[in-house]
Structures are given as C-alpha cells and as structure tokens.
Amino acid sequence: MKAKLLFLFLPLFFYSYSQNDSINSAKLQEYTNQAYQFLYTNQDSAYHYFNNALEISKKQQWYEYEANVLSYIIYVSDYHYNLPVLKQNLNHLESLLTNYKDSLSPESYSATLSLFQLNKGNYYYKLEDYKRAKPLFLELYSSLKSQKTQESITSLASIYSFLTSIYTSEGKHNLAESFNEKAEILLDQYPEYFDDVESRKMLLKGYLANIYNNRKQYKNGTALLEELVNFYEKKSYTNSLITSYQALISSYIVTNNTDKAIQLLSKSEKAYRKNDPFYKILLELYGDVYAKKEQYSKALEYYQQSLEQYKLYRNNEKHSDIALILKKISNTYYSANNLENALDFIDESIQNLSLNNTSGTIDSVNDLLTNDDTIEILHLKSKILTELYNKTTNNVDLDKALEASKFALDVLDVIKPTLENKNDKQFLINNVYPIFETALNQCFLLYNSTKKQKYLNDAFTILERSKSTQLLEVLNLTKAINFNNIPQRIIDKEQQLQANISRIETDIYISKTSKEKQQELIQARESYNSFLDSIKQNQPKYHNLKYNYEVVSLDNIKNGLKENEGKLSFLYGKNHIYQFIITHDKVDLLRFENSHIFQKELFNFYEVVSNFKSEYDTETGFNLFNSLIPDSLKDKSDITILPDGFLYYIPFEALSSSSSEVNYLLNSKAISYGNSFTLLEEIKKIQPKTSTKKKILAVAPEFYNSQSTETRADFSPLIFNTKEVQNIAAIFDTDTIIGKNATLDNIEGQLKDFQVLHFATHASANDEYPDFSYLAFTPTENKSNLWYIKDIYNTKLNADLVALSACQTGIGKLENGEGNISLARAFSYAGAKSLVKSLWKVNDRSSSEIMSTFYKELKKGENKKAALQKAKKEYLNTTIKELQHPFYWAGFVINGDTNPIKSSNNYAWILIVVFVVGLILLFRKNLFQLFK
Question: What is the number of alpha carbons within 13 Å of residue 907 lying toward its C-beta?
C-alpha cells in the first residue's frame, strides 16, 4: 500500500522540476528507479540509491521530493525490520514536516503527514510499545474514517490491521475481531483501491487465526494457518510466508503435534534471508519444540542462541521480547529440576519488564509492564520458589513465593479494568486462575508451619479476589452512580448502547443474518467503546469506583456471626479442594486431595439426586458430607456456602449426615449459597429505590405444546404453575400476570416496581452460548417471547428476591471465579439481592407445593433460607414416600442476601411505635406527676 501511495506523487514532481534543472531531475529519477529494484531484495543497495536521491533534493531544497524519498527509506527499513534506520528517518521526516510545511503543497503535506503518522505508529508497534502505537493509530482512524479517497481507504485498511493485532495482544478479542471485520469490509467495498485483494484477504485470515489461537481455539486457528501457508508458498511475499510458517509451527507445538512442527521448521529454513530479523524466532521455535519433547539440553541451546539475537536486535536494552525468552529458559530449567538456574533466569526476566531504566528496583506494580505475560512470569517465579521450599523446608523461600503470587494478582487487578468486554475478561481470568491455587497452597503451608494469623488473612483475601469479579463491578457501578452524582444522561446512554448491542446480537443469533447485520454490530460496539473511552477521561471517579477490587475484611465477617452460624468458602483446585471456614470463635484453612475417587463420587451424587429414577446412595452422601463439611461446622444449624467449580451443582442439603440411614442435612441445617463474602456484604448495603412500593409480581405463562421458532425448543403445558401463582397471591399482596397475558412485552416494563419477582415458567440453559440461555413467556403469533440472559443483563431491578420456579435456572457454563453463567446469575447482575434458583429440571407439582409454603414462611417473617428449609421439610413430611427423592425438593436453593422480606408498612408502624415510646420516656416525669 505504501509504495503505491508514494509513486502517485512522482510524475507530478518530476514534471514540475524538469523545467528548472533537467540534469538533477534526471539523476533523481535514475536513482529512484535503481533503488526501487532493490526494495525487497537488498536493503543496503536500496538505501544507497535513495540516499543519493536524498542528497540531491536537499541541495536543491526540493522539500516535497525530500519528504517523498524519506518516506521510501522508511518503507524499506520497515519491510526489512531495520528499526534504527526506521527511527532515524522518521525523525528526519518529522523535522522536515515541522520546519518546511509551507514549502509543500497542501495535498502533498496532508498525504505525507498521514503516512508519517502511520509509519510512526508502525515503529512503536514493532517495538511492541503498544501504549504509544495505539493512540497514533486511533487518532489517524478518527481523522480518516469519514474520508473516501483512495489514500484514506488504503491507510484505514492498514490501521485496522494494526489495531486488530494490538487488541489481540491485549486480550481484547472482541475489539480485535471488529477491526478485522472492518478491514474485510473495506476490501469488499473498494477492491479497485488495492493491489492483490486476494493476498490482503489472506492476511486478514492470518490475523483471525491469531485471535483464535489466543482464545485457545487451536483447531480453527491451525486450519486457517495451514490455508495461509499453502497460499503464500505459491507467492513471492517472503515476510508473509515466514510469519505464516512461524504461526503454524507455534500452533502445532501448542497442540502437541511436535513431529509436524519439526518437519515444518526444517522446510521453512530455506525461506530465510541472510541476517534475517525473523531468524531469532526460528531459533526460539526450535527451543519450544524440544522443550515440549522434554529434550531440555537441546531446547536450552536454541533458546540461548535466540536470546543473543534478541538482545542484539534490541540493542541490549530491556524489552518484553527478552523477558519472554528468559522466561522460557527459566521454565526449561524448572522442568529439568535445576531450580537455582531457573530462579536466576526468571529474576532476569522480571528485570526486563521493569519500567525503570536507571534502577533494577521493582517495588510495586507501577514499576512493571502490566500484561498477562507479566502474570505468567511472576507465577513461574512463585512456583520455582515453592519447589525450593519443598526441597529445603525453609519458610523464607515460601514467603518469597507468596509475595510473587500476590504481586501477580496485583497485576491482574491492573489489567481487568482495561477489558470492558465480559468475555475477554473471563478469558483472562480462566488463563491465570491457577495462580489462585498456587497462592492458596502457599498460605496453607505457611499457616500450618507457623500458625500465624497473617497467613489466614492472606488466604481469605486471595480467595475473595478469585471470586465474582464481574458481579462486583456491577455493584460498584451502582455505588458509583448513587454517591458521585453521575448525570442520569450518562447512565441512560450506557444502558441504551448496551441494549442496542444485545438486540443486534440476538437478531444475528436467531436468524444467522447477513453481513449488513454484522456491520451494524461492529458500528454499535464501536459506539459503545467510544463512550467508555470518554467516561474514562471525563468521569474518572465513576470509572475508578466501578473497578475497585477491595475485599471485605475477615474480621467483619467473623464478628458478625452468631454461635449457631458458620461460613464455608471453597476453591476447587486442580490438585486440592481448599476450604476456608469461619465461625464466631474460629477461622481455619483446610484442604483435601481432589482425587479421581472424590470427583467420581461428586459427579455420581449429582446424577443420582437430579434423577428420580436413581436410588439415593447413602454411603456416597455420607462420604461427601465428611469431605465437604468440616468438623467445626457439623454442629452449626445455619451455614452459608460459597462453592467453586463443580460444587456449584451440588445441593448440600441432600448430603447425608449418617452412613447407616438417610439423614439429609436439610433436617438439621438451613443452608444458603453465595458467590463471595464481599459480594454478600455489598448486597446487604443496597437500599431499595423509594419507587419500589409494590410487594410481589408473580408470573405464570401458558404453553400449548408449542415450539419456539427461535430455538426449536418444545414448550409443554405447565399444569401447576397457575395454581402456584394463585397460592402466592392468597398469602401476600401480589400482582399476577397469568396465561395469555404473560408475554414478555407485558412484563418487562413493570419489573423495577416490585420488591419480589416470581416466575413459574419454562427455562433452558445453553452451555455453548451461555448468553442465550432463557426464560420463556407466553408465545404470541409473531414472537416466541424468550428472555435471554444477555437481555436480563441490561435490565435494572430493585428486587429483594427473585424466585425462578423453572428448570435449570441455577446451572450453566462453569467459569473460573464466576461460577455458573446461569439465568440466576443474570438476575444478580441486574440487581436482585437474593435468588431462588434450580439446579436441574424440576418437577412442576412439587415446585408448586414448596413455593407455596416458602411464601407462607416469608409472610411469618422468617429469613429466606429458613423459609426454604421449612418449605422443603414440610414437603417431605406431607408427601408420599415415592416422591421424597431429592429430585423433587433439593433442586431449589437460595443464593444471596437471606434476610427476611422487608415490609415498608411494617417499618412505618415500627417507627410510629418507637416515636411514641420515645415521647413517653422523655416526658415520663411529667406524666407521673399528672397521674399521681
């Protein structure tokens, strides 16, 4: 693109100067033509001829041509990755554009300036200094996107590709895909503006393959890269062929296809030129493949050669490239159990991430480059030091390991706010989640060795930081709005933009629509990202409060407990299950092995309790009781459980406290669930809006064996849901929407007005596309009336309780730290303080009976967990033996704030009574005299 753009100016230039100095003009043309022959094959020869042309233009003060020649030299140095020459000539061109602006024609100045900015961004991009590259590209994008000239369109295509690559490296895959799609749209709309459109489209496939591989979707990424290699092997684009080879080799190595990787490495060597800047990556890939094959000596040999070339390429200055090679060397020594060398190289790697060029001291996160590579490097140091401790049993090593782990988690907290897209954020958390287990293990070992309280405090904080990041952000956002006088128009604008994106995504999901719809989605996401950027600049308090990751203190939780209460938080690790236990007089950290036997028992237990045809296994129920419920909680009658991993699927009430006969925990314990202690504490602080005057909205749609046109799901009639809603209405002051009236349109606008929402309907969990799990409402002629998770996210509720009397509302795709991406979680996201949810496809009749009793108990003033416990116990005591299987009652669980339902009328009476009593006490002496 750049070469083509430059040559557009040359004929005009030569014509304008040929009248004044035909000899110099002829020499200029001769030098330029000679240089162009060596553009891609011999950079030294190209520089030689261009520099000759440059000297003539300087002497003749032909500034326009000088700018043009400098742009050519920049192009050559860019193609050959000669960064010193690139930087030198960028500085020269910047000086010329600053000092001789008036000597250039407006058209030439504008085009050269745009090209200069593009190349300057490209220079920083090649340095991997994305913090300086990205603003340049975004500024150019902003100025060029409305222009339709050939120069602006071709520049935009390059800018889109640069931004695709940068956003991919930052883990912003959603944005990366959007810009890659924008580049493809330009190629489709303006093919006449580009040379070799087919090759450009293949480049975009390469960027898409990189996105796939970054997301660990290696099958898709590898297939695209194989297509790329086959294409470029028939072309003469050397750089594109080499980078395609390298990406495919890397993909083979990651997917353990080492034989193919070695074959392609050998085959690709002939593509490299003398002193090729890409050769250092070839050596690195040889190291990678031999490390994967556990041939550590060979791997180290190649890594050392690659390291020398990286240092030479980076002028022996600190750089993240060097840090990553050093990390690979360290990891190889670690794998070979040479811990001393591993530690030396990882320390050197960390030094190369330092932002302080004058000192090697790293005191805080602000002293480091912050990205997911930094987290991995710090995690590796933590693991090396832990292994040293295992050899030496020296607590100093383990303390250092814990500090490295905590440092890595600090880096994570810096990165999370930069990822606005929830899927990108979740992908990052999934990637780094093992560090939470590493850190918790270190706390466990140090506490058991020293019995120091500080390690329990660290463990509690680490465990809390591992949980519910995205739900906490939503609550923080509510606080930011309430306490910082954020203009309503800003809040409304954000909700409108989110809702628009959700609407378009739903249209695409349902109808698999055209490219026009995809383009509409790109524009909608772009508008939302622009809005978020403006918020960061114009409302920094709002932004900072939203991303405040402070956790509640352990003392606050412990001091608020009664003697009969206990709290239990889990981390479901790869090697161990960790339990953090809190009672009124004790705090403890335990662990047990996450063995295959335990996993099998856990999975079998879920299969049994969720299927009424399976006989309850008392022995398994008792074994799990002993594993999951610590001794210090076995005498507690009120327990709050914070599950993790597959434990989110387990109804603890259905465990048996006896091995000889079935004795469900339900009989002795009221159990509720939560996502994190911090989240539970923040939920308690939420005050309902004054507009929430109405008590309960209960909804019972009707279905006639209808099939959804959107999902092809069959909706059979629900025989007892109307009775369930009518029973609730007989207990509480309830607004009901029943039968044909229970459409989504009739319901959505009313939701924010109610304190309690009850839905007795169909639901479905979608593991493949969690955002498209749904609640179903009465179908209409033109609409299936499905309420998707992604739409619930954009709803704002004031509900103290949402009861989801439907199938599978508490299950969904399991995500590290966030739990189930379920319908219940979506209502938490929307503002519900507590939820009754289901863990499997519940029975319609038993659901109706349990829910009726649940509301009777709430009416009496019981807290929510006790009300649900009593409702289940009454069901067991009054139903026939054949219907006492846990399938019929254990599927419903309570999550969140379990305090009793507040009544505004009751509070009014309480205030009146308190006021009257206060008056009596105040004037009691006078009253006494009066009646004496």
Answer: 6
